[in-house]
Amino acid sequence: MVAWRLLTLGLLFSGACVASPTGLASIRSASGCGEEPGIGLNQRINATLPSGRTYLFWVPPNYNQRKATPLIFSFHGATRTPDSQADLDLLTTPFFNSDHIVVYPSSGEYGEDNGRYWRGAPQVLDDVDDVAYVLEILDAMESQFCIDRARIYATGKSQGGMMTNNLACDPRSSARIAAFAPVSGSYYVNVTGTECTPLTLNFNCHPARKHVPIFIFHGGHDDTINYGGGPRSSECLPYIPHFVAAWAARDGLSDTPEGVGLLLDAGDNATLYRYGSRSQKNLVEFVYGGNHVGHQWPATIPNSDSIEHATPPATFNASSIIMDFFGRYTLRGRKCGRGGYRG
Ligand SMILES: *[C@@H]1O[C@H](CO)[C@@H](O)[C@H](O)[C@H]1NC(C)=O
Ligand SMILES: *[C@@H]1O[C@H](CO)[C@@H](O)[C@H](O)[C@H]1NC(C)=O
Ligand SMILES: *[C@@H]1O[C@H](CO)[C@@H](O)[C@H](O)[C@H]1NC(C)=O
Ligand SMILES: *[C@@H]1O[C@H](CO)[C@@H](O)[C@H](O)[C@H]1NC(C)=O
């Protein structure tokens, strides 16, 4: 087995470089371009939408209202908050990100203590539309800031990973978000009993685009959202490799990976699976976080997740891999070299 080092991620990810036509209407620049930001840079800010729902956001210190700026949505897990998600992903620290705006949406609250869940979870009924909420945030951010509308991304952990996947699966949001990176996601399917077949579950997923870039992370020792799937909270979770293969098939790729290799030589067997060939090379990727990685945002330093679940830190930083992955895609397709698009 080839040992792939994180240091060579750049090389690893270069490959065929042909834009995948999205068939989308031309992408206009955001109306916030040229507007004074009117908020403090490099700090977390709470905002409220006309609908009354709130979100947290952070604008990088070098923000320039005349420069189109990419934006990342990062979704917290069940019972967690936007601030806790920012503490977890560290995407507002210069080590991982210095030029993307980061938005931390806030789930609805449902009854019991800390009953904070996303639509798609068993606790939330069908009439809640969290996708519309996210797009309302995006509209608000685009009118206030100079957002690069071709470089909007989504990531999140646990139910936040589920929410990330829901955005990839919804025709409204998958038409506006370029790439997706769910971490330790709870991909609930509402079936029970003998219909809960983790290896063959069908997913309700209807992206607006033929080729949706997605990078999935899951730990081998996740005892909250088991790698093997099965019944949970009166619904059903998939076997994670089946969930990944279903994305490859949905994207028109072979559901067997074109490449499999250890992520790096660091003890645990963190493994990278890459799907797609030629112009769609590496369109779907999956990191098995390793035998010891639990229900956590993988990081080489301890974080609130690894402490809560008493699992060791990972051998890699998911945030580095996610930023690298997002950097390869725009809504226009795959990005080539420094700034150019081809195809
Ligand atoms: C945002 O609002 C939440 C809820 O009121 C609060 O707990 C949090 O401290 C606020 N965060 C910031 C950065 O102001
Ligand atoms: C799941 O399905 C059951 C049975 O069809 C239904 O009663 C329930 O409301 C559904 N749950 C959600 C969260 O949609
Ligand atoms: C990691 O190693 C364990 C055995 O220690 C094995 O059961 C498992 O399949 C391996 N996982 C991957 C993704 O290689
Ligand atoms: C992971 O990120 C932390 C900063 O959060 C950094 O100190 C550490 O060196 C990174 N590890 C690797 C392997 O890059």
Automatic annotation (TrEMBL):
It catalyses: feruloyl-polysaccharide + H2O = ferulate + polysaccharide. GO terms for cellular component: extracellular region. It is found in: Secreted. PANTHER family: FERULOYL ESTERASE C-RELATED, PTHR38050. Its main location: secreted. This is feruloyl esterase. Residues 1-19 form the signal peptide. InterPro entries: AB_hydrolase_fold, FaeB/C/D, Peptidase_S9_cat. One of its GO terms (molecular function) is feruloyl esterase activity. Its EC number is 3.1.1.73. Residues 107-171 form the Peptidase S9 prolyl oligopeptidase catalytic domain. It comes from the Eukaryota. Pfam families: Peptidase_S9. It is an enzyme of class 3 (hydrolase). PROSITE patterns: PROKAR_LIPOPROTEIN. Keywords: Carbohydrate metabolism, Hydrolase, Polysaccharide degradation, Secreted, Signal, Xylan degradation. One of its GO terms (biological process) is xylan catabolic process.
